[in-house]
């Protein structure tokens, strides 16, 4: 089991049942922190806390959407609201990097002036992290107030050119906001605030002026994005069933004539490619603000829940549920086979599929397959495993060894990330991390570092780190799958019957009888 301490009520079942994640997930020794799972896997126990606050993280790529800046430093030529180092009002900089500030100062730092425009990394990071402290519509209202105050000052100076320049920058900020986080504007209050701000900034613009045109284009794009997401959500709700996207759950073996996975696809590479298709389709429905729920849900559980919170949580749960379904499908395909020779072939087939997933960069499917083969009903089939050539499986388990905070996996992920950065083809761009481990990283970043410093400032350094992790994940989700889609194979993967836990054990015991007192007791109970 993989259950996240305080997050249990937020994320219904972050489980990797029977996977290499069971047992322990200690952080790297150099970090000074050591965490282990409790015996029932219900929570994380902190064993030691050293003076350091760092931990090994997935590699950082923070460039494509947000431009060249990756550190949060003030970029030359963009203007500044104060000094580049030391303190600037209620903002604290270190080596040109914003590390803390009051919420009010951070909000003011977001709003452009005639001579200043915020760095794009700051815009993304602040808009993403601000929801921990204030709902988007309230932030938008405060931005509107600051804009109004600045506009009134400019109007008093009667300099139309400067006023027009300021209006254009405000529209640019709103454009970046609506493109990065369109879901913030599904709220009626947020949409009303957006209309109020755009109305103010267009007052000085002539008919069919550039500012008005930019606002019209921005509004049209926003409405299209919201409509697309709304349609997707409606489709999800229609398809959603109590089984949560699973195929039928069986309590007994199906007829022998029923097709198995080898009857649909016997090529490990092709199956790995189709799994990658499904992964990229499902992960593409996750958005940055969805991932920020890991932090904001715990810190603001009852303060400002908006109508979209359940939707955001569902997108994460649905993707996590796909992992669990794939693990159970693997176990079902193995346990349902009657003959030992065919079971051996099935195990070797899935080992090859997992290896192909690894080569593609699809670590999530690879981990799900390994987890399925490590489930007790499969792992106990000793006579079957004795006939399997396990050298390949041992290599896969080495990559997913949980020691030193999954150091081997993180090294492989870093290699895939570097390959993606230098890729000449779309095939080399694919990186699909183990989602539960990615969520665990975000969760630890949040829990190890405080939101506020002793002086009351927001610990913005923490949110830079979280933002980098989330932005890197979003970069991976935007890759287009280069493999040809096979509807027949995908249909089987998504709708094939899955055994219940009890049915898996029954099938397993029928294939290889119980060997000890515990197994015999279980068999009697079943």
From TrEMBL:
Transmembrane regions listed in the UniProt entry: none
- Entry keyword Transferase: no
Q: Which GO terms describe its cellular component?
A: plasma membrane
Task: Give the top-rank taxon of the lineage listed in the UniProt record for this protein.
Answer: Eukaryota
Matches recorded under Pfam families: RasGEF (PF00617), RasGEF_N (PF00618)
The record's section on InterPro entries has: Ras-like_GEF (IPR008937), Ras-like_Gua-exchang_fac_N (IPR000651), Ras_GEF_dom_sf (IPR023578), RASGEF_cat_dom (IPR001895), RASGEF_cat_dom_sf (IPR036964)
Show the PROSITE patterns listed in the entry. Answer: RASGEF_CAT, RASGEF_NTER
Q: Does the keyword Cell membrane apply?
A: no
Q: Per the UniProt entry, what are the Gene Ontology biological process annotations, in alphabetical order?
A: Ras protein signal transduction
Which key words are in the record? Answer: Guanine-nucleotide releasing factor
Question: GO terms for molecular function, please?
Answer: guanyl-nucleotide exchange factor activity
Boundaries of every N-terminal Ras-GEF domain copy: 94-223
Q: Where is the Ras-GEF domain?
A: 267-514
Q: What is the recorded name of this protein?
A: Ras-GEF domain-containing protein
| Species lineage | Eukaryota, Metazoa, Chordata, Craniata, Vertebrata
């Amino acid at each position: 089991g993989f259950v996240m301490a305080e997050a249990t009520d937020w994320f219904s079942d972050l489980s990797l049942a029977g996977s290499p994640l069971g047992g322990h997930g200690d952080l790297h020794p150099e970090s000074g922190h050591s965490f282990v799972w409790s015996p029932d896997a219900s929570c994380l126990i902190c064993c030691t806390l050293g003076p350091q606050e760092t931990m090994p993280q997935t590699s950082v790529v923070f460039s494509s959407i947000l431009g060249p800046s990756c550190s949060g430093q003030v970029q030359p030529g963009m203007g500044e609201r104060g000094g580049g180092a030391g303190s600037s009002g209620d903002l604290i900089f270190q080596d040109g990097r914003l590390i803390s500030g009051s919420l009010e100062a951070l909000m003011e730092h977001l709003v452009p002036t005639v001579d200043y425009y915020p760095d794009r990394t700051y815009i993304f990071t602040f808009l993403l992290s601000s929801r921990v402290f204030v709902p988007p519509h309230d932030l938008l209202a405060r931005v509107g107030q600051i804009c109004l105050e600045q506009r009134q000052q400019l109007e008093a100076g009667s300099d139309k050119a400067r006023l027009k320049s300021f209006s254009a920058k405000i529209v640019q900020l709103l454009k970046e906001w609506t493109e990065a986080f369109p879901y913030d504007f599904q709220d009626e209050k947020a949409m009303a605030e957006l209309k109020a701000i755009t109305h103010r900034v267009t007052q000085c613009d002539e008919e069919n002026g550039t500012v008005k045109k930019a606002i019209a284009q921005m509004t049209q794009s926003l409405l299209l994005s919201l409509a697309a997401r709304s349609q997707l959500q409606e489709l999800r709700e229609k398809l959603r069933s109590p089984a949560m996207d699973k195929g039928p759950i069986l309590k007994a073996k199906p007829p022998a004539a029923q097709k198995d996975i080898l009857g649909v696809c016997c090529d490990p590479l092709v199956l790995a490619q189709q799994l990658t298709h499904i992964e990229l389709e499902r992960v593409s429905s996750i958005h940055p603000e969805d991932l920020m729920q890991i932090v904001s849900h715990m810190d603001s559980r009852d303060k400002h829940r908006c109508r979209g919170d359940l939707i955001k949580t569902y997108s994460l749960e649905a993707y996590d549920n796909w992992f669990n379904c794939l693990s159970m499908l693997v176990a079902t395909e193995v346990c349902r086979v009657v003959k030992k020779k065919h079971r051996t072939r099935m195990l070797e087939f899935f080992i090859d599929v997992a290896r192909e997933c690894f080569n593609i960069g699809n670590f999530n499917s690879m981990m799900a397959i390994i987890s399925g083969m490590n489930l007790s009903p499969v792992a106990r089939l000793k006579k079957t495993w004795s006939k399997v050539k396990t050298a390949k499986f041992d290599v896969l388990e080495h990559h997913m060894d949980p020691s030193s905070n999954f150091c081997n996996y993180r090294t492989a992920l870093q290699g895939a990330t570097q390959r993606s950065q230098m890729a000449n083809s779309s095939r080399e761009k694919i990186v699909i991390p183990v989602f539960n481990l990615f969520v665990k990283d975000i969760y630890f970043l949040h829990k190890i570092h405080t939101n506020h410093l002793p002086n009351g400032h927001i610990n913005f350094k923490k949110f830079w780190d979280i933002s980098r992790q989330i932005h890197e994940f979003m970069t991976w989700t935007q890759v287009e799958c280069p493999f040809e889609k096979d509807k027949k194979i995908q249909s089987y993967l998504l709708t094939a019957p899955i055994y219940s836990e009890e049915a898996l054990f029954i099938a397993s015991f029928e294939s290889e009888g119980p060997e000890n007192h515990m197994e015999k007791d279980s068999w009697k109970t079943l």
